[in-house]
Design a protein that fits this description.
The protein is of the alpha/beta class. It is 42% helix and 17% strand. The chain has twelve helices and eight strands. Helix 2 crosses helix 3, helix 3 crosses helix 9 and helix 6 packs across helix 7. The longest helix has 16 residues. It is globular and about 55 Å long.
């Protein structure tokens, strides 16, 4: 199993997008959310690379991609970037797996930009209104003030915010990996900038188009998600024709770290079913 890294770079409208690829077989593309990066999906992608060609990428403004203050990082910009990146890779109907903000991005790329997928698996996604934790909404109201707090206060805020997404206590090395991209002169303002860019009208637009989806979709949700309640996931699945819904006990919003074995099993089962020929008559 390869040790996957983001060793590719794609330039798009002045942004630098870091990406990585591994394995062989049908294409599976992972989309992360906020305030995360592709790091959350890396072990799952590595495990699947024995059967699939897996792709990771950091959205502009996140992880190892560029964080230029002059670049818009809202849903539309990210969906356009994703559309361009898929074209750059030359992929035709990949399987897409998305978490959090990546849900809205992948849905918008499909529904608005016309990108074709083979299937879509959505895990605890930001996709339909309302969305956002209480801290998220506070930052939206005061982004300039909070971006100027002393670095040690900022780090404490980000650590507490990220830790709250998990139903189980995060290991220190996992917490550090999630917090570090948001520290320093570049990371601190970028953290508040990406929250301030949230615009719920894109979610309203997505929701109005969900009935058009005609590909296999499964919605996976942590029962203990306090950021986006499971009732939102149920509403989302009900609005997508034929979509399945999987409840994951013992998982919060950070389902990748709360119940990794359950999620890995769900991913492999979902993808394997998409590749299996339909059963013929008995």
């Amino acid at each position: 199993m390869p040790d996957m890294d983001l060793d590719g770079t794609f330039s798009w409208e002045g942004r630098r997008i870091a990406w990585g690829r591994a394995g062989s077989g049908p294409a599976v593309v992972f989309c992360h959310g906020t305030p995360w990066s592709s790091w959350l999906w890396r072990p799952f992608a590595e495990a699947l690379s024995t059967e699939f060609t897996v792709y990771l990428w950091d959205m502009p403004g996140y992880g190892r991609s560029s964080k230029d203050a002059g670049h818009t990082v809202d849903f539309e910009a990210q969906a356009a970037a994703f559309t361009a990146l898929l074209d750059h890779w030359g992929l035709d109907r990949p399987h897409v797996v998305a978490h959090d903000y990546g849900g809205a991005v992948s849905l918008r790329a499909h529904l608005v930009h016309g990108v074709a997928y083979a299937s879509l698996l959505l895990t605890d996604v930001v996709a339909i209104p309302p969305a956002g934790s209480p801290f998220f909404r506070l930052v939206q109201q005061h982004p300039d003030v909070l971006s100027r707090v002393p670095p040690y206060i900022h780090e404490a805020l980000v650590r507490a915010y990220i830790a709250d997404a998990s139903h189980r206590e995060l290991r220190e090395d996992d917490l550090a990996a999630l917090v570090t991209p948001w520290l320093g002169e570049e990371g601190q303002p970028a953290f508040y900038r990406q929250i301030a860019a949230y615009d719920e009208r894109y979610l309203v637009e997505n929701e109005a188009l969900l009935g058009r989806i005609d590909i296999p979709v499964n919605v996976v949700w942590g029962v203990e998600d306090t950021w986006i309640p499971i009732t939102t996931g149920e509403r989302l699945a009900a609005a997508i024709p034929g979509a399945g819904f999987t409840r994951v006990e013992g998982a919060g919003h950070l389902i990748q770290l709360d119940t990794p074995v359950v999620l890995a099993t769900a991913l492999r089962t979902w993808l394997a079913a998409r590749l299996s020929p339909p059963a013929g008559p008995a």
